[in-house]
Amino acid sequence: MKALCWYGMNDVRIDTVPDPKIRDPRDAVVKITATAICGSDLHLYDGFMPTMEKGDVLGHEPMGEVVEVGSAVTNLKPGDRVVVPFAIACGSCYFCAKGLFSLCDTSKPNAGAARKAMGQSPAGLFGYSTCWADSRRQAEYLRVPFADVRPLKNPAGMPE
Ligand SMILES: [Zn+2]
Ligand SMILES: [Zn+2]
Asked: pTM for the complete prediction?
């Protein structure tokens, strides 16, 4: 698939990268139909965030259509149109149980590096270097971990 990749300060390019696949029963794969550029993306573009690596895919504000779900995802099905929030949340840790999804303790793949970079590690974050997640959104497809927790279904007939 095509994706927007980071190569260094003020250097982003459209590259071809592997298509995402279901890796966990709670994953979904979403075909991105609309995405935004956020002020948070500028922290990556201007080199402010220290954990980016060449080829990292950017993006964290997408809408799209579900194309595949893992066996444990019962709230979504192929064809559903969804908005996927920035912070990835497991739905059952100490913080998620209180609705504090941006602090999820389970979804961060590299909490030690994130803590070193920022003082504390937030939840896993899409499109914010492999320090926070390995799924990204300014691309044709997105793997959504814990897809049974946060994606919001668009009401039928509502335009993007
Ligand atoms: Zn944002
Ligand atoms: Zn959690």
From this structure: 0.88
